[in-house]
């Protein structure tokens, strides 16, 4: 049985365990409901990833869904319709209703963006049903690995809206074909692991969830063994380069590394290479 990560027991909807030195494993923990998201779950997600981002005991994160059937089936639409998520006040005019909805959407977006903003690399393991919010969430991860049985879909068109929590912004930047993005987003059709691999949405496909988790954990342990200054800096600069021009990114990199190159990690890494020893890096 995996050991609970110290300091993370208070989260109701997520299991947070140790998957090795400096590696956290986060499981979405609502398997009886296919890990479908309630409002409380995305609010917790933000707090959880903000904590992971600042935790010097964590250098890499594996994100998966509990149970055998689903990573997540997306938003729990039934619960949302009964609560405040999808309800509007009929006494308000259009402008005020729009202001209320916009605040709610922006807050929801921000909760998932916390995964992308996490300073530590996040490896997402998808399996089974992975639709709607699953795409929004996994697009925020740095690396996506899936099981062969994964069934993906950008499902929002089929429930009468455009995806609004990040898929339409991030998916075109995560894959090699804008035509394919429009295909799956406009049609809301299912696609499988082989198609996801072909367009670059995932970087690895494994025979089972267990095998995918093993691969993700192995990768996370490798990343956690490296200089946290180098790994976290690389993530920051890659994400900046994705969203800015080459010239802007080169300027930002020069400023970033003018600080990072003063780290003791550089000397430790170089000496370990010369001496053929395993480097040990201080917490960050």
From TrEMBL:
Its main location: other. GO terms for cellular component: mitochondrion; peroxisome. Signal peptide: none annotated. Keywords: Acetylation, Fatty acid metabolism, Isomerase, Lipid metabolism, Peroxisome. Pathway: Lipid metabolism; fatty acid beta-oxidation. GO terms for molecular function: delta(3,5)-delta(2,4)-dienoyl-CoA isomerase activity. It is found in: Peroxisome. GO terms for biological process: fatty acid metabolic process. It comes from the Eukaryota. The keyword Acetylation applies. InterPro entries: ClpP/crotonase-like_dom_sf, Ech1-like, Enoyl-CoA_hydra/iso, Enoyl-CoA_hydra_C. The keyword Cell inner membrane does not apply. Transmembrane segments: none annotated. Gene3D superfamilies: 2-enoyl-CoA Hydratase, Chain A, domain 1, Lyase 2-enoyl-coa Hydratase, Chain A, domain 2. Belongs to the enoyl-CoA hydratase/isomerase family. This is ClpP/crotonase-like domain-containing protein.
